[in-house]
């Protein structure tokens, strides 16, 4: 039994990209089937006026309709008449995609450096507040209009990156110089971030005209504009922001694959001993990668402020935590983060469509999306485990002497 | 072998043997325990075994000799049911077999002792031996421990093993653990034992003990196939030697009718000079000097106590010593992986004690690390990525922080070709190569760094003789070019033949520094055990001048 499991791990570890895509699609299909049965059966326990009568039982929910709403509803029902590209649902899907790309990248970069950054949420919260405060104050000096847009938005994004980056550097430094586990410190720093920002808000930055806990709104010209060409009027989404996220994503992939820094980061993540041997300053690399990770989270916060709300609110959605799931689903690859973020965006927006179109409860929709994530992420998850604990073995075609690949040939015992 | 050998195995098998001879499967009339006939095993891009024949007579030790990557282990994995051959027959005890898994092979009486033991450390020896084959009592409700113990005692008595079945494996020495592996195979009823590089992990005394065990086993009718790349072992322990080269069998020889040179030539395919010749070279300025270097190990215990050494340009300074006497800590302090607690390290006339590891690399310090899988290679990376390790900030490959992967690939392929890394696949992950080939790649990468100082720890550990010869030649070539070499090796032949001066380290101090030609192997052994030289023989631990 354990042998079979091990050989399965080995095979997973040796999969090609195409294999992995096929497996992901098959897993998606399986999750939809299992979820469909679940929805259908649940329908028997709900009360409704009309439903499918079967052997004296009324099945209230139609799984086909639920999945139709989940996937196509998230795109604004493109197969029905009167569809426009700039509809609310698609806008909301892409808005979430954009924000989740930043959060996902943040987690993925740390992961590649061998660090489990659970603190993206906190970095995003701090970065967002830094953005809102910086832009609100800078707006009083900078002229308005087009100049204001061009100056304030980059300034705001930069402020978010710096805020999030510094906040990410803290657990990095604690790890490097005090050997404090980053999982624990980042979780604690998430709570501290909520506390600090809330205190700062009530102390200084609260909007005096509002009874809600929020900062003063940034001027309208400092919000990320819904240009060019297509404007999403009904929802706060900007194609420009999505384009920036995609460029950042490609930039991160390039950084990891093609630069000295990226090489050192990956080497540290894969094998710290070899990194030290190769001349990487491990402590500095830990701080640097956590800072980069935090900066990416902070940029997520900046876009949440400048694109979605135009101000910082105390009630920050759990984008940072979703980022962890996005990154795992993407196998910690920056490009994969784009696809995974889009899937999560579809879920967010599709869930809303389901609740408007059907009577399926929100919780059940959560189960469906959870199943999909579980099914799609599991092979990837085991592949990562496989890569860590078993060398791609008997299926790997490269060995000629067939020796146990991960072990040494040993020393000269005849010395 | 003769019929009398057949008698020594149990009755049923000898009658089987008779039937087999009648069936004419053993054409020579001798009693073959294993007959591999025309085995061909391909992996995409390489033929690991090409029409290999192997005839192993019952009750003998049969050595399978070949270099790293010659196909020895692949052939045995075919016999053990791990690989399915594309062509050829596996005949065990005269019956043609097709093994789907090691389980089938075990049932057919074949046992394999892997190079790295598959034991559960916290469990007792008896539990490990019985694991997976526990006899039960009360209708399978409980394990019959008494029977396990008595069966193990019987086995130990029969083969003269001195093993305490109640001892915990992690407390046992490596030699004992190996015996446990052999007992495990015997417990499962193995008649043919395959040992994969069995001496690689043993001390010289344990190797002698292993030879005794092998003799006892064959005396009792068991058959041994043992995989090795070391000539001494093959000639010393085996009754017959089959040599593999590049996946092909190049014949079976009687060790009594051959010599090491002829065997080496057969194995490598050309003439091999077994001892590297190191002709005198004009030495230059001291490239590396340490003064009063003291290093504490991870537990805060002083591992290196005030070592002074000088390595001059064009000189090999060898450090001999039993592992764990401070060599590792000293080398790590010199290469920048560890900060010395006291003392100074000077390199090319500059005090580098506070330099980072990167700065030392950039200034021409090449380093072949002791642990290649922990430090020398990033195991999941392919060879191209590993070819960059240490040079990831160098202007040659990463000007302005951007990596020139095409340049790195060319460089990597050069290393693979020059240092004969097999299989020659730059895109394969480092972990998929055998240890010897990993080592060749590291040596190549470090030697081709254009160094002014090479720090080499066990540079040929696990490497086959053909490549060892090449590595030694290249090392001496670097020395001729004026490179300073600091060599640490536990292989006394290697360190004696390569070194211009030889320092013996014991408990963190140099016991003696001498010309390797002026010291006998016995004296060297005594120094390594901590005996200081007499006043009249050599100068003290100071290493001021060479020769």
Automatic annotation (TrEMBL), chain A:
Name of the molecule in the record: ABC transporter integral membrane protein
Keywords, alphabetical: Cell membrane, Membrane, Transmembrane, Transmembrane helix
Organism whose genome encodes this protein: Natrinema versiforme JCM 10478
Compartment(s) of residence: Cell membrane
GO cellular component: plasma membrane
Alphabetized InterPro entries for the sequence: ABC_transp_permease
Source organism superkingdom: Archaea
Lineage: Archaea, Methanobacteriati, Methanobacteriota, Stenosarchaea group, Halobacteria
Pfam families per UniProt: BPD_transp_2
Topology with respect to the bilayer: Multi-pass membrane protein
From TrEMBL, chain B:
Main location class: membrane
Record-level Gene Ontology MF annotations: ATP binding; ATP hydrolysis activity
One cellular component (GO) term of this entry: plasma membrane
Domain ABC transporter: 34-271, 288-532
Key word Mitochondrion present: no
Superkingdom of origin organism: Archaea
Ranges in coiled-coil conformation: none
InterPro entries referenced in this protein's UniProt entry, alphabetically: AAA+_ATPase (IPR003593), ABC_carbohydrate_import_ATPase (IPR050107), ABC_transporter-like_ATP-bd (IPR003439), ABC_transporter-like_CS (IPR017871), P-loop_NTPase (IPR027417)
Topology relative to the membrane: Peripheral membrane protein
Location in the cell: Cell membrane
Region Disordered, residue ranges: 1-26, 516-547
Keywords annotated in UniProt: ATP-binding, Cell membrane, Membrane, Nucleotide-binding, Repeat, Translocase, Transport
Pfam families in the cross-refs: ABC_tran
Extent of Basic and acidic residues compositional bias: 532-541
Official protein name in the record: Monosaccharide-transporting ATPase
